[in-house]
Amino acid sequence: MRLLLVEDDPKLGPLLSRVLDSNGYAVTLARNAAEARRVRASDVDLAVVDWMLPDGDGLVVSTELRRAGFEQPVLMLTARAETKDRVHALDQGADDYLSKPFEVEELLARLRALVRRGPRLMLLERGPLQFDFGRRLAFVRDRFLDLTAREFDLLAFLARRPDDTVSKAELIQNVWEADEIVPNVVEVHVSRLRDKLGADARLVETVRNHGYRLRVETVR
Predict the structure, then answer these.
(1) What is the pLDDT of residue 121?
(2) For residue 104, what is the enclosing H or E element?
(3) What is the three-class DSSP state of 53?
């Protein structure tokens, strides 16, 4: 599950990124509002945003994500602990609020709760493909796909960018961990994924010298 973490603290940001990564989230760390604005809303399933950023207001960042079409849960982090601040954040579109300092276990529990509450987060359809992100299940024409974790992440990443060409470098950066990268890792996983897609293998198209794309517009 792709998570955008917007946190400017030079120690807390990387720490939370590592913890979230170890708990199954693919984290994009943005250290300020400018970096957060460069993240495509369609590439994110969940957002954790610090309210006070060096170059702006995290609540404004959250609002801008909504305007860009982001309909998934947003959890605000802040040192502001007064009731009026929590109420303001929730009224402005945040789905939950966690005051600093906090225990990592509580953050993880709140994220799990947001995933359970958010049906739009859990379900995605792309042509004949269906994804249940909450349970990490994928189907093609209602047939269950028995995918490994990395095969699921690979197909899901392509599904978030339908009909866009995604380079091998971008796939490696967003789907694999550093210690998993071996020669031809993308090619091997694409080949296995196509085998499991069977008659729908052409959904994952090779774009010569550029990368791969998920074709959904013309597939019936």
Answers:
(1) 47
(2) helix 104-117
(3) strand
How many helices and strands in the chain, by DSSP H and E?
9, 13
Q: Which residues of 99-114 are buried (b: 16+ CB within 10 A; e: fewer)?
A: eeeeeeeebeebbeeb
Residues with Cβ < 8 Å from 191, sequence gap 6 or more? Answer: none
* Cα separation, 2 vs 153, whole angstroms: 9
Give residue 217's pLDDT: 63
| Rounded Cα–Cα distance for residues 124 and 177 (Å) | 24
Across residues 42-71, what is the average pLDDT? Answer: 88
Domains and CATH numbers, the chain: 2-117 (3.40.50.2300), 121-214 (1.10.10.10)
Tokens of residue 135, six digits:
């349970």
